[in-house]
């Protein structure tokens, strides 16, 4: 039934209330991702080091990832990704993250996650339908604050750097074993049609107006052009 409604939305045929509701949820997810960046990056001594921000290839934000306390205690979250192109940051795509234990205890509280691809291999991983952190893509807990040397050392050893924020604490986190997959359905809803992740993340699709506040925050904190 859900797939049928999505088809009708994309075709502009019916159920306008359903379509609007779904798009509003995606807009809200993007706005939450912007808030996460603003709140974390506005405290330089606790934020992602500038030496990493300048060289970031892609940025992923998963606001309010939830850990279920039932059965296996699995975690699940949905977020967005943008990548640097030759003319700025790309329009965003939607992703899912799922896995077992992340190595920290958060109870039932939502936890914000940030992923930074530090090289072109990390970018290529995000073009796959699904990949596992620590398996398909090497990862490391990202440093925080002004320690430029630590930031340089860790960024040379990993394709992805990962952070989490729970109960106000922002710190690097081990996400090995967590899977990241493309959320093609939500991406198609947001753009009103079928676009591949590769096309969007390479900058060939214009960013919808609803994504501009998030992209403005990415430009502000991660710089428009990559440092050479």
Index terms:
disordered N terminus, ten-stranded mixed sheet, globular, single chain, alpha+beta
Describe, in plain words, how this protein is organized in 3D.
The protein is α+β, with helices and mostly antiparallel strands and 228 residues long. Helix content is 35%, strand content 25%. The protein has helices spanning 2-11, 16-41, 50-53, 120-126, 148-155, 184-191, 197-201, 212-222, and strands at 58-67, 75-85, 88-89, 93-99, 111-117, 130-132, 139-141, 160-166, 169-172, 179-182. Strands 1, 2, 3, 4, 5, 6, 7, 8, 9 and 10 form a ten-stranded mixed sheet that branches. The protein is globular, with a radius of gyration of 17 Å. The N and C termini lie far apart (50 Å).
Spell out the blueprint of helices and strands.
Elements: H1 2-11, H2 16-41, H3 50-53, E1 58-67, E2 75-85, E3 88-89, E4 93-99, E5 111-117, H4 120-126, E6 130-132, E7 139-141, H5 148-155, E8 160-166, E9 169-172, E10 179-182, H6 184-191, H7 197-201, H8 212-222
Helix pairs in contact: 2-8
Outline the low-pLDDT stretches: 1-19, 69-73, 102-107
**Approximately how much beta-strand content do the residues carry?**
25-35%
- Give the overall average pLDDT: 81
| Biggest sheet descriptor | 10 strands, mixed
Name the overall outline: globular
Q: Radius of gyration over alpha carbons?
A: 17 Å
Count of DSSP helices?
Answer: 8
